[in-house]
Amino acid sequence: MATVLSVSGSPSASSRTNRLLRHLDKRLIAQGHDVIPLDVRTIPAVALLGADFKHPAIVEATKLFAQADGVVVGTPVYKASYSGVLKALLDLLPQYALAGKTVLPLATGGSTAHVLAIDYALRPVLSSMGAGHIVQGWFTLDKDITVHEDGSLTVAPAATEALAQVVDQFSTALGSTPLLAAAS
Ligand SMILES: Cc1cc2nc3c(=O)[nH]c(=O)nc-3n(C[C@H](O)[C@H](O)[C@H](O)COP(=O)(O)O)c2cc1C
What we know:
The protein has helices spanning 16-30, 45-49, 56-67, 84-92, 117-128, 157-173; strands spanning 3-8, 34-39, 70-76, 102-109, 133-134, 138-141, 145-147, 153-155. The protein is built from 6 helices and 8 strands; from the N terminus they run E-H-E-H-H-E-H-E-H-E-E-E-E-H. The chain starts with a strand and ends in an 11-residue tail after the last helix. Strands 1, 2, 3, 4, 5 and 6 form a 6-stranded parallel β-sheet that branches. The chain is of the alpha/beta class. Flavin mononucleotide (FMN) is lined by residues 10, 12, 15-18, 76-80, 108-111, 114, 142.
């Protein structure tokens, strides 16, 4: 089975994007993949904003990308594009850090006006980094993601179905048999 790096690109401590990715990680794990979560907000700002390529956290993140067969890249939509912290990390990786890798782009946002941000903003960057295969992504409205007091998460049924589909397509592209059950 594949090694998947699941990168959440939100700077927010209560990030919905982060919760959503960790929720989807479970489906990938159930399909037999090794999933490594990476929350960009945990990388020291001094490394990200100071372009410190040699900072241990950047060296470690670069290794995680190199070891992965597949990468989930999740971002909130900020100002009609992907987040600044995600870009700060991508800028510190080698030019072809995604060479030969299968990539699943995901976004959360507040308005369907920016549903195409994955395609006009994120996808070209992933492509420029050599991604071997960028599978169909998905934009989830923030109002469709509910985080409960106990930390559990509910995703609206239509979004659940669409997310299960793109995750399974990603999984298939990585060479596994997707689950038949929808993500809960
Ligand atoms: C600074 C900022 C800018 C935002 N800009 C947009 C935007 O341009 N389009 C949009 O659809 N949503 C926008 N949103 C809403 C977020 O994309 C949405 O709430 C998202 O789910 C937040 O994810 P997070 O909790 O992981 O940070 C913005 C939110 C913030 C805080």
